[in-house]
Amino acid sequence: MTQPRLDVLVVVDDDPAVHNVIRLAMGERGSSVLSYYDSSAFIEDLANIPPAVVLLDLVMPGRDGLSVQKEIVRSGLPLSVVFLSGAGQLPDAVEAMRHGAVDFLGKPFRRDALYAALARAETNLAQLATERDRRNRLQVLSRLSPREVEVLQAIAAGLQTKTIAYQLDISCRTVEMHRGNITTKLGAPLTGALLLAQEAGLLKTAA
Fold it and tell me: Which Gene Ontology BP annotations are present (predicted)?
């Protein structure tokens, strides 16, 4: 999987000046900024947002940043959150970190501090995207029956049909039937099914 790059930065803050400062800073990196001035608008559009770093204000009219963060976590989407916090909001920022935020920036913030926080968030974003891919693979593999998983694991171990049939106490014809079911259910040839299972951690690896 290609590691995510910060092509798009999402900013959720009700202060237009904050958006302008960030847009200017990110323009130097060739990144575009997706701006939301209202937390509710961001939540409504949440499902349409690609993997990205989100700069999220802690205190906004309507739903505050902590509430928005909970929606992000609940969605399971690969969005890496960096909070923006004003003076006196440190306790809330600490609470946000406990619930999965990568970092927080105090307002006003220096450009180098912004870049440093975004670098950490990019690393976190890569991890989130990798985990999402793994969950997706496992979801696809859940279409297989336990017996089909056993057959797939045996094929991955290099066993021939007769050996698989003997070990599982089934006929060779049944083994072939399971092979056909595997490719049909996963919508991929056997080599693709094996790769999918390996990437999902379903196959045993040699010590």
Answer: phosphorelay signal transduction system; regulation of DNA-templated transcription
Alpha-helix residue ranges (DSSP H) falling in 33-160: 39-44, 65-75, 90-98, 111-141, 146-156
The DSSP H or E segment spanning 55 is: strand 52-57
Which of 175, 179, 184, 202 has its CA nearest to residue 143? 184
Same domain for 107 and 52: yes
Task: Looking at the structure, tell me whether residues 80 and 174 fall in a common domain.
Answer: no
- Is residue 79 located within the same domain as residue 167? no
Q: What is the pTM of this model?
A: 0.66
Sign (positive/negative) of CA torsion 49, 51, 52, 57? positive
Confidence of residue 114 (pLDDT cuts 50, 70, 90): very high
pLDDT per residue as tens digits for the range 169-180? 999 999 999 999
